[in-house]
Amino acid sequence: MSRSLPGARSGGRAVLDGGPSGRTSRLGGAAVLLCAPFALLLLGTVLAPVTYALYLSLFTERLSGLGFSGPSSVFVAFGNYADVVTDPDFLHGVGNVALYAVIQVPLMLGGALVVALLIDSAVARLKQVWLLAVFLPYAVPGVIAGLIWGYLYSPGIGPISSIAPIDPLGANGILPSVVNIATWQWMGYNMIIFYTALQTVPRELLEAARVDGAGPIRTALSVKLPSIRPTLFVGLVFTIIGALQLFTEPLVLRSFTGAVTSTWTPSLYVYDSAFVAGDYGRAAAASVLLGLVSAVLSAVVMRISARRSR
Amino acid sequence: MSAATTVNGTGRNGRRGRKEPSPWTSRAVVHAMLGIAALYSVLPLVWLVTSSTKSLGEFSTTSAFEFADWNLPANLRALFSEADGVFLAWTRNSVLYAGVGAVLGALICTACGYAVAKLEFPGRRTLFAVTLTGVLVPTTALALPLYLMASELRLVDTFWAVFLPLLTNPFGVYLARVYAEAAVPDEALEAARIDGSGELRTFFRVALPMMRPGFVTIILFQFVQIWNNFFLPLVMLTDPRLFPLSLGLYQWSTRVSQFPQYNPLVITGSLLAVFPIIVAFLVLQRQWRSGLTAGSVK
């Protein structure tokens, strides 16, 4: 599994650049001691579960004979995968997450970038205050962010339902509502990352742009943005992975509205299949698909990023 | 600060260029947009503060952002006495999972990242490549197989089922490698070796102090990651006495439609759960900001 992922191989190459030179292998013993705890954790909590999920996804539980001897595992090859990808509930969840990602990823990252550029601009005062104010929601756990907004969306408690054009907890409003929660949570974090990267843009470069007659917007678009492109791509990868995993916020909103079904996103589908329906094979297949899509998407984005920055 | 003032000064007085500046970059518009972003970010937290001072009846009779009769002490008393003080147990659990987990996890990641950056050993490249793959594997895809593995090891519904998997932080290893390369010069390690210091001692006494801002950054962000994690405890735990805050508050929130008296508990509990992290970020600001800078230089 791990060898077949392109991301792993491009990462392996990156090590070649910054490695130490001329060190002898007499240091091997200490290095093994320093690496062993993490290597064991990685093996036990990432590699083994991934392998186990792959194995599980190929089997299903069936009652044998008259059912007296209990269920037994039956090898079904890709049967579970076929079940999952033809299940309308799963496809509906995939559709929700795709629509969510198409709206949330550019909205949140765009917002973070605009705020970072505004704080970085020459005219901005009180930079520390803006930075910290916008960053604060990052300190709020996903469950609590979901609860706060759930109350704010609720008629009679929060003000939003009386001013919003559509019911934020209704069938049509629920997707924008979830987008808003995730944008609120993650905009400040990405803003700080982008702002930190903007601080490293060489001053001479900005000065040269000013001398050439470029205004602040022109400078931002043609000098600052290209300089922080690698950081933007890393932010994009993590946001996409996060979007595909969407779970906590919709689950919490289920306490406030019936508009979120128990299989509203693929992650909810996994949870529902495993712990409500008890179908581990199907849940494992959905998990593997989720992991695979997210790994492939991130690898593609990283590949594009590497090509651009060359 | 003085540098910022100088830049502002030339912007205001030294407008010698013929080009008229765009209205979008005027000081007023920039600050208006920043004000909107700040309000959007802070207002929900203001709501959390004002609402935790309200009794159940006052949610519908008062407007969202106003303080009502000071009902906070009564809410706090109710919060801590509910179900034999289970909220205190959740707080303790969160501190154990996230506090102990973040320090231990960050130490494990930093040791590994340092070794990958600064020591030569067989399998170094493979280890780092697999670690990067680990960054890409979504945690929600791991929860189900982890649960089944834990149930075979009879670890389901124990502290370790949540604690151990959350120690693993592949991105922390990546960051630690960047920090080690930037902050630990080879000469310092060489000097320590000539003085007869063993490799482990060199790591703890020489390299780790040099990597301190990076180390604190990894601790802080892993702390938030564990504090925020919800899927794993949700799957692993059924005993409320083992819940972290987020799972406990979620469980209460599922009851509010039937039992509205849980509303003040959920809201006041949320405020208390958010408060320490905000304080940690403000107090450790200098550390994690410089850690982020070191991480993004690469």
Walk me through the structure:
The complex is a heterodimer of chains A (310) and B (298). Chain A has 14 helices and 2 strands; from the N terminus they run H-H-E-E-H-H-H-H-H-H-H-H-H-H-H-H. Chain A is mainly alpha-helical and 310 residues long. Chain A has a domain of 192 residues: Orthogonal Bundle (MetI-like fold), CATH 1.10.3720.10. Chain A has a two-stranded antiparallel sheet with strand order 1-2. In chain A, strand 1 and strand 2 form a beta hairpin. The longest helix of chain A has 33 residues. The N terminus of chain A is likely disordered. Chain B is an all-alpha fold. Chain B has one domain: MetI-like (MetI-like fold). In chain B, 74% of the residues lie in helices and 0% in strands. Chain B is built from 16 helices and no strands. In chain B, helix 4 packs across helix 15, helix 5 runs parallel beside helix 8 and helix 5 packs across helix 12. The two termini of chain B are 26 Å apart. Chains A and B meet through helix 1, helix 2, helix 4, helix 5 and helix 6 of A and helix 1, helix 2, helix 5, helix 6 and helix 7 of B. Chain A: One of its GO terms (biological process) is transmembrane transport.
